[in-house]
Amino acid sequence: MDEPEFDDDVNYEERRTGAIHAVLSFVIALALLVGGIGMIITFVLTKPEPETKEEAELVPTVRVRGLDEGAHQVVIATQGVVRSVREVSLAAEVGGRVVAIAPQLIEGGTVSVNEMLVEIDSADYKAALARAESGLAEAELALAQERARAEQAAVDWRKLGRGEPGDLVLRKPQIAAAEARIESAKAEVDRARRDLERTTIRAPFDAKVRRAQVEAGAVVAPGTPVAELYSAKNLEVRLPFPLRDFGYLEVGASPDFTLTAEIGGETQEWPAKLDRLEGEVERSTLSGYGIAGVMPNDAGELPPVGLFVEAKVPGKRLEGVVELPRAAVRGRNEVWVVSDDRLAKREVEILRSGTDDLIVRGNFEAGDQLVLTRLTAPLIGMKVEVEEATEG
């Protein structure tokens, strides 16, 4: 009967012990939790403040150069071919057999004014002149006879005493006809004399022979070409100017310049003067043309006809302009400048475009410096450091 009570006491003791353990575990866990929270709070409250650093502003460095407004002399590069001012193609004016030619009548030969170049057989033309002179003499004789008859008719009429004689009595129509025959005969003599003179073809001026087209023994007809001549002393060059440059030439001005060409590996020069501008524009090339006279160089020499020469012709003088490197222009007509160490943008008007440089007008302000460095993302007002560009 006593064993059940003992078992109850044992169970009660075990339950009490378990309850105590549970309470102790809760207290320990709570203490740990509170301690951990306390440590976290302490760590947060006592952690050192991080050092704050100000972020430095990025300031790019750009190369710059000054902007100097001033005057610019336009110089237009062009080229052309030397040609003779005087050129002529000689032809026979009368027909016949060529009996002689001048030794100088060869390609490249030099002939003088009035020098005989070609002689055509003149026998027939001398005979024609003689016939014309004979006809003139006969016409003069006929006129003298008619005048004598008129004088005799007037005397006979007065003897008859019939009043004033008429024109037929005084043979006035016959005299007029005889005078007309004389004028015709004189014209025939002149024509025959000219034909005789034309049997000799002479040089019209001091010239070089470009082409000889006849030989002795050949039979020529009127109009047959015999030679081509050109003057080697009066030379000129026809120079083309694109329309964008043509407007920079001053009408009425005759600027001096130099023609250059390379001959035998050496550059040779000749002075020239722009004599006149042609009034038309060539549609195929959209170019205007100027004619320049060529003068001898210091050695007294002229360039050969047909030589290709280059020239730089002075044009108008532009005032208030700036010369810029082509690479400094952004887009179509904008440049970046530095003003008070900050970037700014200026619009420009491009007046002339060269291979490397541009001539512009712009709304530049005092102190502006042209930016030569190509920035990736420039902004108006961006602060920059400047570095002066070295010459060249």
Q: Unreliable segments (pLDDT under 50, ≥5 consecutive)?
A: none
- At CATH level 2, the architecture of the largest domain is Beta Barrel
For the largest beta-sheet, the strand count, sense and barrel status come to:
6 strands, antiparallel, barrel
Can you give the mean pLDDT?
Answer: 86
The backbone outline, from C-alpha atoms, is rod-shaped
CATH C-level of the largest domain? Mainly Beta
Task: Say how many strands there are.
Answer: 21
Strand order of the largest sheet: 2-11-14-13-12-15
Describe this entry's structure for a reader:
19% of the residues are buried. The protein has four domains: 1-45; 63-73 and 320-388, conserved putative lor/sdh protein from methanococcus maripaludis s2 fold; 75-84 and 232-318, Efflux pump adaptor protein, beta barrel domain (Elongation Factor Tu (Ef-tu), domain 3, Beta Barrel); 87-229, RNA polymerase II/Efflux pump adaptor protein, barrel-sandwich hybrid domain (OB fold (Dihydrolipoamide Acetyltransferase, E2P), Beta Barrel). The chain is of the alpha+beta class. It has four helices and 21 strands. The strands form three sheets. It has a six-stranded antiparallel barrel with strand order 2-11-14-13-12-15. Strands 3-10-8-5 form a four-stranded antiparallel sheet, with no helix packed on it.
